Amino acid sequence: MNRIGVFLCHCDLNFSGDMDLQRVVDGISEHKDVAYATYCRDMCLDLGLESVQKSIQEENLDGVVLTSCSEALHRDAFIEAMETVGLQPHQVNIVDLKQLVGWPHSYQGEESTMKAIDALSASVDDLRRHVSTSVSNVSVVKRALVIGGGIAGIQASLDIADGGYEVILVEKTSSVGGHMIQYSEVFPTLDCPQCIETPKMVEVGQHPNIKLYPYSEVESVVGEAGNFTVTIRKKASYVDWDKCNGCGVCQQKCPTIVPSEFQRGLPFGPRRAIYIPFAQAVPNKPVLDREHCGHFTTGLCQVCSKVCPREAIDYEQVDMFVEEKVGAIVIATGFELMPKSGVPEYEQDKDILEGIEFERLLCPGGPTAGEILRLSDGKSPKEVVFVGCCGSRDPEHGVPYCSRVCCMYLTKMALLYKHAVHDGQAYMCYIDLRTTGKGYEDFVQRAVEEYGLVYLRGKVSKIFREGEKIKVLGADTLTGNSVEISCDMVVLGLAMMPSPGIKELANKLGVKTDEFGFISEVHPKLHPLETSVPGIFVCGTAQGPKDIPDSVSQGGAAASKVLGLFSKDELTVQKVAVG
Amino acid sequence: MAKKLERIGVFVCHCGQNIAGSVDVDKVVEEIIKYPGVVHAEHYMYMCSDPGQELIRQAIREKDLNGIINANCSPSLHEKTFRRVVSSEGINPYHQEVANIREHCSWPHSRDRDMATRKAIAIIKATVERLRLNMALIPSVIPLTKRALVIGAGMAGIQAALDIANSGYEVVLVERNPAIGGHAAQLSGTFLTLDNALCLVAPMIGDVINHPKITLYTYSEVHQVDGYVGNFEISVRCKATYVDEEKCNHCGLCVGACPASAPSEFDRGLSERKAIYFPQPEVVPHPPILEVKNCLRFNGGECNACQEVCPTGAIDYTCQDTIAEESVGAVIAAMGYDLFPRDRIGEYEIDPDVIDGLQFERMLSPNGPTGGKIVRPSDGKVPKEVVFIQCCGSRDPEHGVIYCSRVCCMYTAKQALLFKKDVPDGQAYVFYMDIRTDSKGFEQFQKQAVEEEQILYLRGRVSKVFRDGDKVKVWGTDTLTGKSVEIDADLVVLALGIVPSDGAKAMARELNIISDVNGFLTEAHLKLRPVETLTSGIYLAGTAQWPRDLPDTIASASGAASKVLSLFSRKELLHEPTIAFVDEDICVGCGQCVSVCTYKAIELDPKKKVAKVNEAVCEGCGACAATCPSKAMKHKNWTPSQFFEILDVATRGYT
């Protein structure tokens, strides 16, 4: 390349405010390989691109360096526009001056100008090394992999499957349903997930286009958009699910009692070593927990194997690996709550619960059959304090972001608590009340007016046991007074974190995450579902905290991206060869 | 009359403790098995689960059942599940009925176990009587036009249209304004990334205009919608622009010559435009339009300045509105939002220096009336003290609306930040009630505004805004110190709430979909069917449904597109057969049913003088059957004789 042109986008006043564009143009013009340099307005618009095209033809350029705000957003349009004037992708470089210079060096005119010249001249040097563009076509495998069988993954799977394509749904636990199925009733309609989510779970289990891999994990992924090869690890359940009919005799007879993950380890609702996680599980098949099973720990027990009428127990089973070819991947791995120990000022105590534990207490299918009891003494709590922002919005101890759902779920729990304990009193400590969804504001009003919930604006500084009671020390920032409540039970609205193992999975897939582990989208505004790898999409809380309606609508939206991809038979892939 | 079903099985679900907690399910089974026609009854913890369904299948096979009753939750939840189960065993799905003993029984009578149990038994017995008279039905097959209509070409409409078109289906996109892009095109740097809105929106607008699968009608309105899912007939009124698109060469001489001017809608009155003008010239080349309201010629004047200067003879004063007809199979409603009407907040004086959020956006926009400079509209000076007031109209049931508008906290923080970038020695104040920055990166963004730009956040409402000489006085309270606050501001920016777009209600009526008390369109289920409506084939996207920001709008639009794509992936559609039918021997053709039908599904046969039901349109609501004075109009499987049987059995022992 002998005649390289450099075109700076004025990008209006967005980032050029501190940078001296004319000096950048003068500076880069001195580069020995640069034949032409200029800046123009609105390069992302047709009018702007036309002026670039005109200059390329007039100056007879054979390579260009363009600047833009977000490369991800504009790359395709730029490449396409350059192709119309005869430049191939290897003859075009794009430099994101906004993120590289504009933002980190705002108010530093001189430095930003110099850095911009350096960045552009490095890009010119890089462009000189580009030799050719190779074009290949990938035929699209019209099957999708969905990772995670919570409500977002369920919705994405159903929408893709209803669109007529096959879906491979991988879920690491032994049933689909995710966190939603653990909840009692969901805000603001107070539907019970056992009623509204189970039809979708059953549909996933029965859909002719959905191939469900429960108790499985994605082991490795190779390939590219349109053609990925996925290896799935089917974890040993020690039960032959083809033979098993889900009768449940094994878990009735198993002598080993283990705290149940589904019941969040609450004392009233343990499971056995061989267990179906909950009554509505899809599929309704047990898994054997090797770590606790008597057969594996002592070698003596064989009860499940003896009582199984179908001879489905297989102690010799090992993990199996299956390969599947897919054209697109949807990440829907969901969230986990921050551990209670994350906030050291709040003592570890049986009567200090986290949100999902309290959900299990409220749930008719929970360990107390919906009765609200103190775990310490089994008494009905008369005063309960709900504490918002435990770990959220707290960069010192926890995470700086807001978890988005806690204001609403704590309000809902307080309301359901009042349904169960009519003479009880509920308090809610919050920083800002964030109830922005449809019907949410009305819901909180109702909780205050009809149920007499007391809202206290302020952070809770300390929670500890004092005899029979739990003491909550906080502040009411509206009166400026400190607040001290002696209560019977405390429920913590702990921060939402990405599901454990997300970073490992992101590495396998090659997608980027943010510092907390949430999957990064290509562009937060216009491409909220696309990840940094083409053909891989994200939905639900794997992307960031969100509530059920937003997760469902994102699940559907990710499906629409997959359906769009599958409407093509071939994808064209361009690769730049470097000399 | 259908043959009576005499081998009925009853399956009672515990629904965990939801039903079994207040209904004695053992007793129910014990009683119901004695009832004539019932040959099998059992109960189980979760009948909808896989093993529950297997119990039903097994009983059908073993006991040779020909009618099934599921006593559980509302039919809206699991009727489909159980109908699928019975069909898999070769029984007509309409020989299965749900007896709702949860919403109708165990929940309302949770404190009286005896009463709840008796009522559950009565409900099941009544359902047995109804089931006996059920006809075996087969869903009807209706054709499917694989083209979609998208109403509104803001960001939601554009995204939905692109998603559908990119999957290979044709889209008709209708926008009532002369330019597309909606409110997003009016914005400056958008929050979080501070990307210029135009940089984001313009490429998408270009994609829409150049897309071979998208037919775009701008300056047009959908004025009539007929038909039903798969087969909608739409008529679009294309408003006259008085400029011949073919002849116009975009030279702009007409605009220069036009003597009449009006406030620019796009700049929200901060600049003037002519009566003939280019809508959004910077986005796409588009011929000018002539607006009748402000044109001298159309208001009694003699002017023909534009026609005189036009070198190509493109101006045509005789131009008329035209009507275009389109057939589509699905509709996406994306009519967007407006700001809460400013004049309804009487306490905040109308003043040139008290502007709304969108006006401030125009001011911040490089292509706006001030070229991106922040100035006071009254005197053109740079304002040093700017007060931003959040929740204007929102969260204020007395003056405005009860709900939160969801985007104001973030856009105010962003506007204050951009103000500080432009006027580094200025001071920004923000009055707020709660800071709601609950999406990815929002919290950090707002914190940065407070910490780095020293924007002063005051928690409290503003009681009065009025002019005081050169300044605008702002009276408010700081609820954190409990003190009242008084600020002499140079400029006040009101974060007005989001309300549904003007005309959205009328459009909802035309589409036959529901809107809520606030005028936002109502979804089929808030949590699990957020982009569908109760009218099949019609979907929702963006702020027409609820206030939301750009990422959420994009996601909801793609979600709606995915529903359309799913619909279009089918060859044909099946229509629920539990609909109205006419006994032609009895019908006298009075036409009362025609007038009560909201779906426009009934017409009078002119020859036979009897009512005729369009089976594909009828949704089976039953209004006609209830209205018919001669009982000629009936509802399949909800006939009067079934009702009387139900009433008879259900009330036995209570009268």
Description:
The complex is a heterodimer of chains A (579) and B (655). With 579 residues, chain A is α/β, with parallel strands linked by helices. Helices cover 28% and strands 26% of the residues of chain A. In chain A, the strands form nine sheets. Chain A has a five-stranded parallel β-sheet with strand order 8-7-6-16-27. Chain A has a five-stranded parallel β-sheet with strand order 18-25-19-20-21. Chain A has a four-stranded parallel β-sheet with strand order 2-1-3-4, with helices on both faces. The longest helix of chain A is centred in the N-terminal third of the chain and has 20 residues, at 109-128. The relative contact order of chain A is 0.12. Chain B is α/β, with parallel strands linked by helices. Chain B is 28% helix and 24% strand. In chain B, the strands form eleven sheets. In chain B, strands 8-7-6-16-27 form a five-stranded parallel β-sheet. In chain B, helix 11 (408-422) packs parallel to helix 12 (442-453).
Notable characteristics:
heterodimer; A: 579 residues; alpha/beta; 16 helices; 28 strands; B: 655 residues; 5-stranded parallel sheet; globular
List the helices and strands and how they pair.
The complex is a heterodimer of chains A (579) and B (655).
Chain A: E1 4-9, H1 21-29, E2 34-40, H2 46-59, E3 63-68, H3 71-84, E4 92-96, H4 97-102, H5 109-128, E5 130-139, E6 143-147, H6 151-162, E7 166-170, H7 193-196, H8 198-206, E8 210-213, E9 216-224, E10 227-234, H9 249-253, E11 257-258, E12 271-272, E13 274-275, E14 287-288, H10 294-297, H11 303-307, E15 320-326, E16 328-331, E17 335-337, E18 352-354, H12 355-362, E19 383-390, H13 406-420, E20 425-430, H14 440-451, E21 454-457, E22 460-466, E23 469-476, E24 481-487, E25 489-494, E26 496-498, H15 502-509, E27 536-538, H16 548-566, E28 570-578
Helix pairs in contact in A: 1-5, 6-8, 6-16, 12-13, 13-14
Chain B: E1 8-13, H1 25-32, E2 38-44, H2 50-63, E3 67-72, H3 75-88, E4 96-100, H4 102-106, H5 113-132, E5 140-142, E6 147-151, H6 155-166, E7 170-174, H7 197-210, E8 214-217, E9 220-228, E10 231-238, H8 253-257, E11 261-263, E12 272-274, E13 276-277, E14 289-290, H9 305-309, E15 322-328, E16 330-333, E17 337-339, E18 354-356, H10 357-364, E19 385-392, H11 408-422, E20 427-432, H12 442-453, E21 456-459, E22 462-468, E23 471-478, E24 483-489, E25 491-496, E26 498-500, H13 504-511, E27 538-540, H14 550-568, E28 573-575, E29 580-582, H15 592-596, E30 602-605, E31 610-613, H16 623-627, E32 633-635, H17 640-651
Parallel strand pairs in B: 1-2, 1-3, 3-4, 6-7, 6-16, 7-8, 16-27, 18-25, 19-20, 19-25, 20-21
Antiparallel strand pairs in B: 5-28, 9-10, 10-15, 11-12, 13-14, 17-26, 22-23, 23-24, 29-32, 30-31
Helix pairs in contact in B: 1-5, 2-3, 5-17, 6-7, 6-14, 10-11, 11-12
